[in-house]
Amino acid sequence: DQQVKQNSPSLSVQEGRISILNCDYTNSMFDYFLWYKKYPAEGPTFLISISSIKDKNEDGRFTVFLNKSAKHLSLHIVPSQPGDSAVYFCAASGDSGAGSYQLTFGKGTKLSVIP
Amino acid sequence: KAGVTQTPRYLIKTRGQQVTLSCSPISGHRSVSWYQQTPGQGLQFLFEYFSETQRNKGNFPGRFSGRQFSNSRSEMNVSTLELGDSALYLCASSNSITGELFFGEGSRLTVL
Fold first, then answer.
1. pLDDT recorded at residue B109
2. Cβ–Cβ under 8 Å, residues A104 and A46
3. Which of A57, A109, B91, B108 has an alpha carbon 20 to 30 Å from B8's alpha carbon atom?
4. Is the preceding peptide bond at A9 cis, omega within 30 degrees of 0?
5. Percent of chain A having pLDDT more than 90?
6. Is A43–B4 a contact, with Cβ atoms under 8 angstroms apart?
7. Secondary structure string (H, E, C) spanning chain B
8. DSSP helix, strand, coil percent of chain A (3-state; round to 5)
9. Distance between CA B88 and CA B91 in Å, rounded?
10. Which of A46, A91, A105 is the closest to B102 by Cβ?
11. Residue A112, exposed/middle/buried by CB under 10 A (0-12, 13-18, 19+)?
């Protein structure tokens, strides 16, 4: 049972436009959400996060929105740049016992920003 | 500050062999986690170590094991390799209560 779902395997956006990446989760115990970006042959790098007590977090061109009632979060990138082309992973964490730092990841969305 | 270092970066093994992967976390980070990434499966949690103790384990068979040393460095071992074990194995370290992970570049294992 997939607890974190990214239903769009890929997304293409024109440079300068907005990129919206979506993520749904099923486990109501999740209380912290993160987005990671991954280039080929590199490990994922942390992008932005949001706690369940907030509904929006902004960092430069990146904004994450959280809708707890819908168990949905989205990552907005404005304006999109060719260097943003990568695979984006949504991840969630919650109380998995003994203070463990386990993250549950979605399968990722490959974003292509077209110049 | 040096990042998470994983060795080796690439390796090729044959079915039935065993493999050991190594991870050095960011200095001061006491938690080390391991994830497996395969095409179309995202990142799947293997296990997490904290202060030399396995604190959490994902749904992988017993062929997958790990350990952490007193200097927080970690190793993971896969015995009796199967073709389906071909994947990118990622190590991540953390020192954050909220669980923000810092990943290494991964070890890409190919099983022939």
1. 96
2. no
3. A109
4. no
5. 75
6. yes
7. CCCCEEECCEEEECCCCCEEEEEECCCCCCEEEEEEEECCCEEEEEEEEECCEEEEECCCCCCEEEEECCCCCEEEEECCCCHHHCEEEEEEEECCCCCCCEECCCEEEEEC
8. 5, 55, 45
9. 10
10. A46
11. middle
Chain B residue with minimal CA distance to A105? B43
Minimal Cα–Cα distance from B79 to chain A, Å? Answer: 23
C-beta pairs of A59-62 under 8 Å, 24+ apart in sequence: A62/A35
Distance from C-alpha of A101 to C-alpha of A98, rounded to nearest angstrom:
9
Cβ contact A107–B40 (<8 Å):
yes
Nearest to A106 among B33, B42, B106 (CB): B42
Q: Which two tokens stand for residue A46?
A: 């942390």
